[in-house]
């Protein structure tokens, strides 16, 4: 019996094949099994995942996070590379190229932030994107904020005992006043933990003020209630006077009796818990954490850095102009609100 030859390696994948790749990855199939199903060389599947799934280097080894593969995004990227621009090249000078590359690669600004926030830059947001796409800059798409936003599989978490569930539900985000929800008042913070690898206890607790998008980060030695309380005390030592409430998720680090007692009794602040598996209810914090992850990618061990180095990285984030703030920086808006408060 004649064996059916795989498709030519030069035949591009179509959208239906990309959907099949995603579905088979979700079913736990290997690259070889996917290749046989699609009658493709295994190298074709590997190259497709390298181009369109997240790739990390951990302890000297390259790993493809196959679950981050998105067929729609992969198809769009393929369509772009197949197309050719017929427009004349925009005018770009070496000085302007160097300046834009600096803000994209070193400061981690977005093209929109550069166009509106860098004095006398003289280009619009779309032009900067075109320069990146046409490879007129040394910066690439991978240097852009939010590049490759990925879906993630949510894992079931241990169920809290009845008394703890009652403590959480009485402080549900659904009981949070509308003046906090619509950001009409100042001094309401969202907090979250940015974790190290599983073999490290250290992590960072990030605090983001909802109205100004101002971010603060504090290192914690571990997720134990005592270490989390120490990090909370560090934050309150500077910002207690401009903190009225805190909203967090239901992680074990934020549901201990000591944590609740510290916020409500020691500091007299309101505490609210988001619903399970609902990061969108703390969207401001999640958005800022993604920017911090661009400096300290997933897998980074926070025991390797000092609090000063962490704060320097967060300072850069606070100094980026924001569209939602009419291209003012969180640093300036927050400082102004403190002076008024």
TrEMBL record:
GO biological process: DNA integration; DNA recombination; transposition
Any one Pfam family match given in the protein's UniProt record, by short name: rve
Highest rank taxon of the organism: Bacteria
Chain segments annotated as transmembrane: none
Sequence ranges assigned to domain Integrase catalytic in this UniProt record: 173-338
InterPro entries: Integrase_cat-core, IS30-like_HTH, RNaseH-like_sf, RNaseH_sf, Transposase-Integrase, Transposase_IS30-like
Gene Ontology molecular functions: nucleic acid binding; transposase activity
Keywords tagged on the record: DNA recombination
CC per GO annotation: cytosol
NCBIfam families xref list: transpos_IS30
Name of the protein described by the UniProt record: Transposase, IS30 family
């Amino acid at each position: 019996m004649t064996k059916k030859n795989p498709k030519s390696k030069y035949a591009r994948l179509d959208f239906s094949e990309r959907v099949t790749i995603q579905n088979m990855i979700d079913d736990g199939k290997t690259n070889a099994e996917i290749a046989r199903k699609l009658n493709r060389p295994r190298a074709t599947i590997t190259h497709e995942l390298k181009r369109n799934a997240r790739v990390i280097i951990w302890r000297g080894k390259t790993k493809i996070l196959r679950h981050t593969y998105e067929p729609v995004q992969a198809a769009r990227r393929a369509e772009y590379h197949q197309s050719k621009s017929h427009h004349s090249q925009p005018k770009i000078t070496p000085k302007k190229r160097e300046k834009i590359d600096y803000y994209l690669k070193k400061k981690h600004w977005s093209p929109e932030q550069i166009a509106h926030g860098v004095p006398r830059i003289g280009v619009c947001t779309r032009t900067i994107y075109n320069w990146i796409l046409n490879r007129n800059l040394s910066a690439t798409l991978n240097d852009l904020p939010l590049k490759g936003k990925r879906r993630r599989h949510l894992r079931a978490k241990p169920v809290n005992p009845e008394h703890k569930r009652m403590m959480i539900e009485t402080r549900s985000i659904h009981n949070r006043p509308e003046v906090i929800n619509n950001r009409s008042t100042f001094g309401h913070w969202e907090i979250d933990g940015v974790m190290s690898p599983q073999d490290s206890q250290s992590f960072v607790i990030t605090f983001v003020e909802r109205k100004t998008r101002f971010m603060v980060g504090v290192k914690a030695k571990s997720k134990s209630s005592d270490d989390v309380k120490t990090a909370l005390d560090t934050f309150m030592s500077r910002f207690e006077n401009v903190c009225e409430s805190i909203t967090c998720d239901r992680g074990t680090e934020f549901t201990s009796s000591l944590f609740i007692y510290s916020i409500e009794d020691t500091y007299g602040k309101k505490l609210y818990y988001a619903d399970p598996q609902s990061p969108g209810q703390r969207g401001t914090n999640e958005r800022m954490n993604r920017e911090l992850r661009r400096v300290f990618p997933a897998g980074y061990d926070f025991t390797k850095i000092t609090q000063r180095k962490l704060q320097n990285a967060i300072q850069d984030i606070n100094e980026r102009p924001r569209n939602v703030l009419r291209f003012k920086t969180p640093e300036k808006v927050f400082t102004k609100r403190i002076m008024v408060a």
